């Protein structure tokens, strides 16, 4: 027998990576957030710790920005999910298998372009004098007035983040292979029942991955929102950036960053709880526990019949 | 779609229900194409209620496509399929009175064993208490009650197979379709399950349509075997007939093992004159002067040391040198080289097997009654049936 | 990233915008100075790095320039290498603090020869030994620089810096949408609250935003009086923010050509480029902020420890020559401060020079920014204004 490495040793590089590139920086941010900005010539000091920065974060000014960010984050993620789900399902299940590689490549196409360039492209398209607006006016519409509104922000968000939703969903649906869906239909379940009881539950890891991949970066993104939403695209990410870059108040910036992390975690937890609660009665109705047989199985067994 | 439904209804009416008992499956001149290739070619087959029928053939012969058309996962391009006297054309799988045991079981990994079995009953809005009882019964039947609350991933292959069976049978279908269900099991378990399946089928009286490429499986369980080739049925008969009186060289080769001799048809169509032996049968039937195939099963070939050294061979005799001896348990198998291009297998029951060593000159012989004669069949040879090993 | 590379990736319209987004005026904020000063205090070198003082010896073969993105005419750079030999390598920074942080971190070994700090940074950079003294003997073309732009408060004798370019702040409005003449910051505010409500943008910079209130109300925009700051916040958050649709430091990039807004606070050079690129230039009118507004000035300086001081001096002298000054002005769209360049530019037929050059009376109304302890408060007001506009 070959001696096997203990599991934790194999995981050591991963833990080291996590510690150096995640735990340490986040720890520093948390540490800074309890400090203060001692003078206009320094960014932060931690010789005196307090929750004062957090009190500042919860001022009405920042609260409004947090609200706006959360709105964009949640609505954007929900939109991406509602659009990405049927697209990914179609790609994985309905599209001819020979075309799937091409479809995945097409989904990735926007990523071949710089993030800022893509977003600015939309700014050009949506402007009141842009070709889209001109075309719409040509057929009798008002000039386009979507730029610098929340509608434009959502459009940009869906455009920039949709691939991050589609790809994990596609992989998940692709893995729920044909025989399982066929088995479901064979057992009397129609298309929708099959989708909700077999495909969707088995795609759960992909759904979770997609939602987190969209929601978390979206909460920190301010480029999309600012470029397309103008003043209406005010995001926490920009507040944090302004504290670090412009105000040079690392303590307050850190506190904002920590609150943002907490808001993200809390939102994810609340979302998970809502899904759990909503599906609870459905899952309960499908649940079936038999328990161990009280006595030996009845004489129905084939073996015993053979013996007899 | 409305018109289609009407046509189906009419078809169902015209197919005179009542004439076909519940559990009967009638496949009527069904054709199925995939692109340019024809998977099933005007196939007709009537499966009696309560029958255990096997669709046997190599991969690509159309047996799985046929099964999937009965299940409803594929629609025929032409022809009709009736289950229990009612046409199922255009009827989705979930409305057909058939259930399937899938090749890789296709158990739902996120449900417990009991929930897997209950799934079909839940779709039919069966009352909860009844579901519970029927699931317990089905699990008892499959001897899987102990594992009711486990997840499929915690089970062995054989256990998963039993769950798949219980999951299908709990719905009390009139027809059960089995798509190579034993393929993933090891040999001992497979043989055990063959026996169980057969017993189960005869006890429940459900029609079993069993797809396999394993002739042993088909022979041991089936009431009838349909040997398929290129989308058609080559022979439909019970196990004995298929084994003893194969309708073609293809069937002869696919069921059991054969020693083939190819050569010119002589003696009024009763013998084939091959390079290494004159093989004579008991009946005429082959056009004289053409090429023909003679086949002899290894178990009908006797073997002994060649003491006569008499090169002038009598009919149904072949001389060669022994190049291999192997124990198959109850029988001994001998591999004899007749010439550069042909060898011969002989099999004798172990108690009466002669003591021979590799390198010995041997003479093999067989009775004319055990010889089967077929017209030359290039297609059969090309389709890869079991041919005598050439060493 | 060069502007050419960007152009390959983006539609022509967007490329221009991006180039601008990455370019010079993006991060003009005095706040950062505070931090740089902090960095300086913390990391100031213990001894001034030894600077090889240029004495007019032979030029080195290389020259490294650390400047704002897309802030030099490529033709002038190429011509310098062709005429005098040293090969130029360009590096770009986005903000003064980024540049200062790099110089402090390198402690005189950054390898950069020429740096381009904004005026407000020069004094502190010099004080902390980050800049080398200039040898005026090697820069005879200094005589071509207009004395108005020499001897500023932060470097009275131009020991460390010479004006590279300067600019100011005003606003642009759409004369087809606003049919009255806007003349000063009060008109700007009034239009923003009325006909241009929801179609007005402000510069995305703390001091520029508070500046509007201070300039309009005759308060020095460098005030540290808490009452003034409170009043500015109340006005901006409650009175102005609800009418603002964007915070855009470069309306000339896309907002003017695409007519996204009606009224835009903007820098003079950016507004000029935007109007020049607009399909309907006559639609836009630029108004210099009044009764008061800002002036900013970027400067040529030599980094302490510069490896190629002779080439650095030669380069500064080269770009100050009248013909090169004109080429620079034509490319960047801001006045380089060269004597008589207005006439030269006018003779050369450059368009819209009223957005580049200003009368001495106008220049007298422009005030330089200053680093004060109110900076944090100003940033807070900026954040509050943006939050209010986004609500």
Automatic annotation (TrEMBL), chain C:
Which InterPro entries does its entry note? SBP, Sperm_putr-bd, TAT_signal
Q: Where is the signal peptide?
A: none
Q: Which UniProt keywords apply?
A: Periplasm, Signal, Transport
Q: Which superkingdom does the taxonomy of this entry point to?
A: Bacteria
The biological processes this protein is annotated with in GO are:
polyamine transport
Gene Ontology, cellular component aspect: periplasmic space
Question: Which residue stretches, if any, does this entry annotate as coiled coil?
Answer: none
Molecular function via GO:
polyamine binding
Q: Which PROSITE patterns match?
A: TAT
CDD domains named in the record: PBP2_PotD_PotF_like
Compartments, as annotated in UniProt: Periplasm
What is the protein name stated in its UniProt record? Spermidine/putrescine ABC transporter substrate-binding protein
